[in-house]
């Protein structure tokens, strides 16, 4: 097959995929989170016409109230290591729901859980935090999203408090487009996502809480394992205002534990 045919084929496949992706994802917003489950996709038949049904009927949904959970620290847990390193070509992405950074396709950064490696695909921010402690939010929350070749999703979450200015957070805000779905891939800026981890934790051996959960945005798919760090990072009050200039209240409310407990590495 010559190059031209291959390119045409690739274009056709991409176009089909893009069309499918659009038809499989009706519009949603955080304002209407109580009824995400009821959003219909008129292009699909029963039962696929409720593509976000899991948001309503799921029993292992995220986020949760950490203050309401029973903490089990007696189980031996795997070592957690965030081996991120510098990405030389990150893409600054306004996802339509939040400020996000997509790692480049040849980025090698990954989260190691024991011997298993989960490549870092993107990281993004919520304002205020999604996970709460006894009903209380933090000002914001960072989610590192990892997916391995089997499609297993691992999210590492870090609470964000107000305090010292955060230089890497500033770089991200300055380079993220303000228009929905805008992408900035040509900034020529290098980012090391590890610089957003709490400075008082060892990235090669992180303390953590872990719990089975879901995506916190539609389709709210379960089977996502959450790792929550026990330390916070800070951004300045001005930086939080800058984040709110993109999206505010882009956080899902805490969901019932339904018998789940929180495992602690400490
Ligand atoms: Zn998130």
From TrEMBL:
<feature type="signal peptide">
    <location>
        <begin position="1"/>
        <end position="24"/>
    </location>
</feature>
<dbReference type="GO" id="GO:0004089">
    <property type="term" value="F:carbonate dehydratase activity"/>
</dbReference>
<dbReference type="InterPro" id="IPR041891">
    <property type="entry name" value="Alpha_CA_prokaryot-like"/>
</dbReference>
<protein>
    <recommendedName>
        <fullName>carbonic anhydrase</fullName>
        <ecNumber>4.2.1.1</ecNumber>
    </recommendedName>
</protein>
<comment type="similarity">
    <text>Belongs to the alpha-carbonic anhydrase family.</text>
</comment>
<keyword id="KW-0732">Signal</keyword>
<dbReference type="InterPro" id="IPR036398">
    <property type="entry name" value="CA_dom_sf"/>
</dbReference>
<dbReference type="Pfam" id="PF00194">
    <property type="entry name" value="Carb_anhydrase"/>
</dbReference>
<dbReference type="GO" id="GO:0008270">
    <property type="term" value="F:zinc ion binding"/>
</dbReference>
<feature type="domain" description="Alpha-carbonic anhydrase">
    <location>
        <begin position="26"/>
        <end position="266"/>
    </location>
</feature>
<dbReference type="InterPro" id="IPR023561">
    <property type="entry name" value="Carbonic_anhydrase_a-class"/>
</dbReference>
<keyword id="KW-0456">Lyase</keyword>
<dbReference type="InterPro" id="IPR001148">
    <property type="entry name" value="CA_dom"/>
</dbReference>
<keyword id="KW-0862">Zinc</keyword>
<keyword id="KW-0479">Metal-binding</keyword>
């Amino acid at each position: 097959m010559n190059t031209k045919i291959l390119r045409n084929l690739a274009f056709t496949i991409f176009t089909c995929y893009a069309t499918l992706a659009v038809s499989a994802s009706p519009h949603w917003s955080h304002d209407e989170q109580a009824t995400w489950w009821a959003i219909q996709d008129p292009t699909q038949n029963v039962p696929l016409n409720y593509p976000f049904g899991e948001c309503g009927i799921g029993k292992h949904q995220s986020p949760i109230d950490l203050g309401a959970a029973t903490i089990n620290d007696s189980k031996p847990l795997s070592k957690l290591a965030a081996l991120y390193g510098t990405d030389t070509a990150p893409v600054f992405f306004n996802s339509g729901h939040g400020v996000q950074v997509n790692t480049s396709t040849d980025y090698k950064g990954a989260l190691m859980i024991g011997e298993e490696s989960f490549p870092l695909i993107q990281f993004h921010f919520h304002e205020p935090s999604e996970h709460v402690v006894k009903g209380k939010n933090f000002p914001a929350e960072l989610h590192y999203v990892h997916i391995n070749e089997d499609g297993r999703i691992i999210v590492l979450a870090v609470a964000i408090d107000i305090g010292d200015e955060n230089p890497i957070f500033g770089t991200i805000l300055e380079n993220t487009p303000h228009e929905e779905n805008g992408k900035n891939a040509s900034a020529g800026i290098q980012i090391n996502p590890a610089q957003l981890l709490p400075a008082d934790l060892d990235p090669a051996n992180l303390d953590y809480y872990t719990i089975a959960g879901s995506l916190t945005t539609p389709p709210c798919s379960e089977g996502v394992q959450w790792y929550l760090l026990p330390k916070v990072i800070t951004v300045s009050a001005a930086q939080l205002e800058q984040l709110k200039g993109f999206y505010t209240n882009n956080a899902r409310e805490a969901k019932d534990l339904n018998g789940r407990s929180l495992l602690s590495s400490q």
